[in-house]
Specification:
eight-stranded antiparallel sheet, 38% strand, single chain, 295 residues, alpha+beta, 6 helices
Length: 295
């Protein structure tokens, strides 16, 4: 005897671009997003009995996202994700939970002749602002905000020593090394009872995202890092202290290695230790350090 344990379905990779035209200021603002939707509810018969009467077509989900983007603000992304997720739970009585993921792609206003240009933008980095919102019938809206793909490096101010040395250890202890990582940082908000509570918190979302980014960059740059583990913990502590409505902060930091190259084979050329200037960037394998810090 078998049974369907879990089922959900949806539309992924919905590309959305929205422009806001301020006629009075003669400027335009743009937002580009990738949106994903997943629905759960009384949909078992679509799997077990080929009953499509319970299915909201994924093409309809795509269309819904476009319509809601026209009717509502798409910034901050936490609000738009909550609007879309709540729509599906409110609209379809057999849908009990809707998860919406949003990736916001950067478009930064150009500065031309020393002034912000009215309608021209550039993508000045691959890092994104990410949001995941889940609306659940009878519970409310859960939101996780995130920074993803933020590539950082510092050429000194990082060490790693005192780790376990046994028959498997070949890594040398270092008191100074290059530290580089691609930041994935997320923070989970206290559950919002309803969409109106998300709307009331709108000013907090940008403030928290900018604050988390500032904390990440400042701590990364200033901390005399004994390990990635200790540095990321300090980041989590500061974000929790700065944003009372956040209940947990998580980081995932791959360690992007840069190895010294021994060039002594070429006429005794010194390029190790204090003489190291030329390094070989490594792709993999790499360290991966993760943590979640909660109240």
């Amino acid at each position: 005897m078998v049974q369907l344990s879990t089922a959900r379905y949806g539309k992924d990779n919905i590309r959305v671009y929205k422009v806001h035209r301020d006629e009075q200021a003669a400027t335009q603002d743009v937002v580009e997003m990738t949106v994903g939707v997943l629905l759960q509810g009384d949909i078992e018969t679509s799997y077990t009995q080929a009953d499509n009467s319970v299915v909201v077509a994924t093409d309809s989900m795509k269309n819904t996202v476009y319509v809601l983007a026209k009717q509502h603000p798409v910034s901050p992304p936490e609000l738009f994700a909550a609007i879309v997720a709540s729509h599906f739970v409110d609209k379809y009585k057999h849908i009990h939970s809707a998860q919406v993921k949003i990736i916001v792609h950067k478009w930064t206003r150009m500065t031309i002749d020393g002034k912000p240009h009215a309608h021209s933008f550039l993508r000045d980095g691959a890092d994104t602002r990410n949001v995941e919102a889940t609306a659940t019938e009878g519970k409310g809206v859960d939101i996780r905000s995130a920074i993803a793909g933020l590539l950082v490096l510092k050429s000194t101010g990082s060490a790693f020593h005192g780790f376990i040395r046994d028959e498997y250890a070949t890594l040398s202890e270092v008191s100074d090394r290059i530290l580089s990582t691609e930041v994935d940082c997320g923070w989970v908000w206290d559950t919002f009872n309803a969409l109106k509570d998300v709307e009331a918190a709108v000013p907090k979302f940008d403030e928290a995202w900018n604050g988390a980014r500032d904390v990440t960059l400042s701590t990364f740059a200033k901390d005399e890092s004994a390990s990635v583990q200790n540095t990321m913990y300090k980041m989590c502590e500061q974000i929790l202290a700065a944003v009372p409505m956040v209940k947990a902060v998580d980081y995932s930091l791959p360690n992007k290695h840069y190895f010294e190259i021994d060039l002594s084979w070429h006429k005794g050329l010194k390029n190790t230790g204090k003489d190291a200037e030329v390094y070989a960037p490594q792709s993999n394998p790499n360290g991966l350090i993760q943590c979640t810090v909660s109240r």
